[in-house]
Amino acid sequence: MTHFLLFYSVVALRSFMPSKYYDHWLLLAFAVYHLMEKLVRQCYLLACYVALNKFVAFIPALYGAEQVSFNVHLLTHIVQSVIVFEDANRVLVRCIHGANAVSREVIKFYVASKHLQPLADETVWWRRPVVKRGQIGLTTPPPKKNPTRST
User: Fold this and answer.
1) Do residues 25 and 9 lie in contact, with contact meaning Cβ atoms separated by under 8 Å?
2) Are residues 47 and 118 in the same domain?
3) Calpha distance 126→120 (Å, rounded)
4) Domain tally for the chain?
C-alpha cells in the first residue's frame, strides 16, 4: 500500500481522476512521502503540516461531510507525532555507545535518568521555578548556614 500511495498512484491516477481529486490526493502523497524519509528536514515539517490540513479541510467539499471520520482528523496530528518521535529517537541514539546489547544500554539509560532527575531537582537550586506576580522566575541561592562551634 505504501508503494502505491507514494509512487504508483502519482502516475497511475493522473489519467483516471479529475484534477481537483488528483490534486487533493497529491497533498496526502506529498506529506506521507516527506514524513517517511530517514531524515525529516525541518523545512518539510511545515509544508507537510499545511498539506495534511488542506487535505483534511477539502474532504467535506470533495467527498461529503459524512466521510470526515476520526481517522481523517488524526491526519492533522501526524506532524506533531513525527516531531515527538524524532526527539525521543535523538535521545535514544545518544545513550547507545556500541553495537552489542543495545536494549540493555537503553534500559540502563532510562533507569539512570529516572533516578537522577529527582536528585538533580532537589540539589540544583536554579532549576526550581518560583512564581512571582504571575511570572516564573529563578530562585535565589539558599542562604549559607553559619557553622556553630560547640565547646
Assistant:
1) yes
2) no
3) 10
4) 2
